[in-house]
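B., you asked whether I could sanity-check this one before it goes into the benchmark set. Here's the sequence:
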Amino acid sequence: MNEFVLKEKAEIHLPPSAQHPVISEIIKGYTAGIDWEILFDAEENTVVIGSSALPETADEDFVLNINENGMAIAGKDHASTLRGLFDFLERLQATDPREYSCNKALYKEKAKITFRSVHLCFFPETSFRFMRKAIRAIAVSKYTHIILEFWGVLKYDCFKYLCWNEGLTKDEVRELVAEARALGLEVIPFFNHLGHASLSRGMSGKHVVLDQAPEYGYLFFPDSHGWVWNFLRKDVKGLLSEVRRELCELCGEGSYFHIGCDEAFILGYGQNYAKEIAEYINEIEEDLRAEGRRPMIWGDMLLSKAFLPEGARGYMCNSTKEIAETLLDGINKNVIIADWQYFVKGETWKTSVIFKERGFNVICCPWSDRETLKPAVDTVTENGLYGIMKTTWNTLQKEELGPLVQLGLSAVKGEHDDSWHALYYGADNAAGIIRGVSPSRGDYVSSGWRKDQLELTDY
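And here's what the prediction gave me:
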């Protein structure tokens, strides 16, 4: 017999650390029709069904053993063990209304890219249900971290005008954070400390603070129309410090904090405040280091087109050479650079290599153009960079979950298939994962990842 068969009634043994309800929900979501007895009596970092022997591990993240008698997983930690469980669930195929099977296997996984993250944006238009669905799919896709950015939707204690009236309470966000952490994801807090100070997309014309309380215009850099925080003011630094403190408490223990700092255009080609910006970022680095965290920043303000060879196209470089040089020299090398390049195709990223040569740890950050995913993965693996971050911005609820799932699984292997076959399979795979982690039970709107299939206009 070459298969493991799961029929009608089954017993699974999970470790005590897996008692959060979301884990049981996902098991049942993938195996509708199976009557489970879920026990939390397994050794830590193990999962067992039936009488399959626990596999031995060396330096693998996890080892999965499937034979005709059952299934067993041994992982190096809680997160890796759950990724082994998700791997097993993804292998199961329905063969009857109350029966599933999968081939026997001894699978060992050791990730080629160890830091695999997704940057998630919570907009006023983002539904709570959808964000929960996305986080679950990200966990099953074997990412290790999520970066949560709240676009004027989180009710802070320190300053009420950082949130629109239609915001989320901290208790609501804690529910999402608890699920993410239970699924093996570290939650990295995000708050932009320079550009994007409106906490709204620039093309919307909205500003979470100034549209509610224009008398607070002094918090923002002169002539920036509210786009850039006035980091030269002590009260602004104090406010942002309080924001960091609240977000760290909300997101739980972790090793990082993303402070943004992108697209502060007036400080890249206008007045030269590069020395002051470097000192400002280093102050934040020192503050976060005392809490056991490393700051991440977007890399565009540290780049000049003058750094690139003639003919290089598509790179985002938002400072003059003088300003960029001052920032690269002045910023503490404990700061991690998130190099977002959304238009570079057919070559590894020159900018990421520049950052590495300047002594920084670097994360490659592609977005929605699928032709940039393979170059991003190749840049990380060929240059031994820190990791990868899939950014999603405003497109997550359109067509983003397919390539997001595909990239997570590719990053584990350290190689990305950009063929059309892989692209369409990735979308189908993402749909299957969504059905497993968040069954809609026939509700049209909550199925898939788009509210509607068609975008229609009334005439």
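One thing to flag: The chain has a mean pLDDT of 95. Otherwise nothing jumped out at me.
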